[in-house]
Design a protein that fits this description.
The structure is a homodimer.
Chain A (H helix, E strand, L loop, with lengths): L2 E8 L3 H13 L5 E6 L3 H7 L5 H9 L2 E6 L4 H11 L4 E7 L12 E7 L3 E9 L4 E9 H16 L12 E5 L7 H16 L3 E5 H10 L6 E4 L1 H14 L7 E5 L4 E5 L16 H13 L3 H17 L12 H10 L2
Parallel strand pairs in A: 1-2, 1-3, 3-12, 5-10, 8-9, 8-10
Antiparallel strand pairs in A: 4-5, 4-11, 6-7, 11-12
Helix pairs in contact in A: 1-9, 1-11, 5-6, 7-8, 9-10, 10-11
The complex binds 3-isopropylmalic acid (2 copies).
Amino acid sequence: MSHEVVVIEGDGIGREVVPAAVEVLEAFDLDFEFVEAEAGDATKAETGEALPAETYDAVGDADATLFGAAGETAADVILPLREAVDSFVNVRPAVAYPGVDALRPETDVVFLRENTEGVYAGHEDRLSEDLSTLTRVVTSSASRELAEYACEFVGDGRGPAGDPDEGFTVAHKANVMRETDGRFREEVLAVADERGVDADEELMDAFATKLPLDPTQYGVIVCPNLAGDVLSDLAAGLVGGLGLLPSANVGHDNALFEPVHGTAPDIAGEGVANPTAAILSAAMLLEYLGHVEEGTRVRDAVEDVLSDGPRTGDLGGAAATDEVTAAIVDRL
Amino acid sequence: MSHEVVVIEGDGIGREVVPAAVEVLEAFDLDFEFVEAEAGDATKAETGEALPAETYDAVGDADATLFGAAGETAADVILPLREAVDSFVNVRPAVAYPGVDALRPETDVVFLRENTEGVYAGHEDRLSEDLSTLTRVVTSSASRELAEYACEFVGDGRGPAGDPDEGFTVAHKANVMRETDGRFREEVLAVADERGVDADEELMDAFATKLPLDPTQYGVIVCPNLAGDVLSDLAAGLVGGLGLLPSANVGHDNALFEPVHGTAPDIAGEGVANPTAAILSAAMLLEYLGHVEEGTRVRDAVEDVLSDGPRTGDLGGAAATDEVTAAIVDRL
Ligand SMILES: CC(C)[C@H](C(=O)O)[C@@H](O)C(=O)O
Ligand SMILES: CC(C)[C@H](C(=O)O)[C@@H](O)C(=O)O
């Protein structure tokens, strides 16, 4: 079966790490049709639009998309693209890799972030000279859909413990946002209960204290959109930064994969960017398209190279992007 | 000049640590009139109300209030009490104390959290079976008032560096909440500019990654209400937890002081709670009422005892609350 995969390099180091990830995908004998598309600051400078309609449509029509990073226009690119793939969940693993300097090397968590609503569905209004409002939206349907996904995710042993009994933790702020986060919390816990999945809960502020104190308490964390944004970035800080972390925006029959890092303007164009996060995003893409064994092989090769292979500057090495990529391809 | 100070122990270890803090205040030859008032879970069980009108009124009429902690009813108690003192800023220092096991002992930051609006001014509605909304509120007036306070705070050398040139950092999510956090960001930066105070900015998610990676980059952080709640709790996790952290809810001619920790039901009633956060909150109260030298003496005594005095169980010791309190009073 052939897969149509849209490839958007975007800006900055996106132009270096996405080709590296494509090289890894091409190393397998799989039938991919890659379609290149444009988005980001450079595209805006050229065409007047950060996300041209052709790109939006191509992403919507594809089987999956691999996206790099966008600069100033990041929100204008990534938020509509999440919508283009009809993504209801953003999957964000944060694990400390061997040989990488991490504040909490024992961290091994996956965030399942609601990807359609909360403040991101924000209707904002300037009501007077002095006052602006944002209408935050929470629905039972989106909360339940996320929870169903979470139950399958842990049930399939895809959580860090690999054990369906591990269950998940819901992080929220329902003591203050009683109606909206109250609804989220209640629906997520109800679905877990119906499915016989263990679920506990934390207030998101308490979670922000406890995660650095002891990350081993947590495995899969289910949260509203902005909570997931901030808390998963916090976890990134505990495993050594954003340089290695992939993510998946999963929809009903489409998905978009992106490294968590940005455009890294300070090193862009020098060929020294760390391609690992993009390559691990490609591993998630492989798994999503049903090539689970290939996904595992990529992950194993990455860990191998991190243990004793060439390293880029962010990890204290001096290797170029293509040396690291070649080493990973070599060990597939 | 006599000061009327309302004292609310609340629930759990609040009943142990607040009397300890009062003992410290009484050790000085100052003219305090302490007024006891009730609030919290136990009060609700007895009277039907977590926050009786007499307590609300007493707090509003006093010069300052010292509050312990409340259990399940925390939000019903603390949010109206912040309003009773007309508090526009929540001051939350997070510093690692000597001899305390901290993930990032070099952390030394102060959060200045907006204390009246954002999602906390939340108008929530259940619009249908499926959908609820929350209206988040941001005004220029509250943003500017917070910024004016921040400029005075750093200008007076009250930031961690003690240096007016250190300026402050604004943390926000204006790339998504463009109108509301956009307004907040713009007004705060405008006030800093008018006052000649250095200010830089971070997206709150990027801040959550960077703070654990290198807390020494930051000093005073100015943020919207919920951002301040979560990010200051994250900082608490870096300095070893909530056990030692005080906070101040400052209004125009009134203020409320509270330890950041909760009721600790697991150890409540045993006389072994760590009184440090409550005592440091009393130090902030002393400073607020103009007794700056006495505040400094409390802080110094606390550091002294943390270095080589008796310790409670949370810090690996076996001392009782009153032993630690006596040691602190002894070294004033
Ligand atoms: C760029 C921004 C809109 C985005 C978000 O807030 O979701 C980013 O922070 C992320 O987490 O992918
Ligand atoms: C109890 C709760 C309402 C409160 C808040 O969210 O402000 C608490 O978390 C705090 O930070 O003081």
